[in-house]
From TrEMBL:
It comes from Cylindrobasidium torrendii FP15055 ss-10. One of its GO terms (biological process) is proteasome assembly. PANTHER family: PROTEASOME ASSEMBLY CHAPERONE 4. Pfam families: PAC4. This is Uncharacterized protein.
Length: 101
């Protein structure tokens, strides 16, 4: 996971990389921008979202970004390289990290 905190938004990459923490490079070993989405919170409504780049048939990244935007009240740029069964665990980790910032 990599989070870049911007002024009113967060740019997030979540995925897996081969190797150990010390010698892995997520850009080379993971799939950066596999599914790239943007979500923007709206008061009292479901956050709006759009796909910027899509390589899979799954909407996991878009729904994850919308939920994170709703929970943090910030615009979210999200690149997700996680399977649908691991998406909720990854989302919880991202939200907890953002709240700790």
């Amino acid at each position: 996971m990599q989070i870049n905190a911007l002024v009113d938004s967060h740019m997030i990459w979540v995925g897996s990389a081969n190797g150990t923490t010390e010698d892995s490079n997520s850009v080379e070993n993971g799939s950066l921008c596999r599914d790239w989405v943007y979500a923007m919170p709206q008061p009292n409504k479901q956050p709006m979202g759009t796909t910027l780049f899509r390589t899979s048939a799954s909407d996991t990244a878009l729904s994850m970004a919308q939920r994170i935007a709703r929970k943090t009240d910030k615009a979210i740029f999200l690149s997700a390289d996680v399977s649908p069964q691991h998406a909720l665990v990854a989302e919880k980790l991202v939200v907890n990290t953002l709240r700790a910032l």
